[in-house]
Amino acid sequence: LDPGPDGFDHDKLLTSIKTIGQYKVSGNKTLMCNGATIQSTDPNPANRGPIHVIGPGLTLTVDNCNISGDGWALLGALDGAALVVRNNTHMTGSNNSAIYLRSATLTLTGGSIDQARWGVQMENSTASVHGVSITGTTFGVQNVAGKLTLDSSTLTNLDPGAGPGVSIIGSAQYPSSGASATISNTTFTGFLNAIDIQPTAAQGLPSG
Prior knowledge:
This protein has no helices and 23 strands. With about 210 residues, the protein is mainly beta. It has an eight-stranded parallel beta sheet with strand order 1-4-7-10-13-16-19-22, with no helix packed on it. It has an eight-stranded parallel beta sheet with strand order 2-5-8-11-14-17-20-23, with no helix packed on it. The chain is globular, with a radius of gyration of 16 Å.
């Protein structure tokens, strides 16, 4: 085990509430909570942010955790890393991203997300989302120049200000990558649109 500067141990079964600030995981790690709660916050706003992993070949696995927080994201994977979230993990946001991906992969199985601005915010990434409930998020899944598979899930937002359930967005930053999504056996309730595709090829960018 390698506790970080704030004393947070990886690969350890949590049994009580733990409060941490932004935390970068080193190496391949599994966080097993057995239903315990992690509060992701810090008195200094500059230190608020996700539990995240960065770099090719590295995997962070989050198992049966309750994670809440007010940083810019709760969980993240960047620059070739992989994030696996499983076994009834619940994420409660605060006008932020529950999960943020940049040039990374996500496997999200079961569990739920609520009260975030973005349930999953992904850029040039690949995400598989299976059997998940996403509730009260302004945007369910925002997919920029990535590949999304979404199945057996429910996405709900009855707020009049809700955005799309799934956004599929091309990006000039990744000119060779259009955005795509495969969606099956999934229910959308509320939202501005269930699925929103932008921009069109006529706008000079890769189409969704």
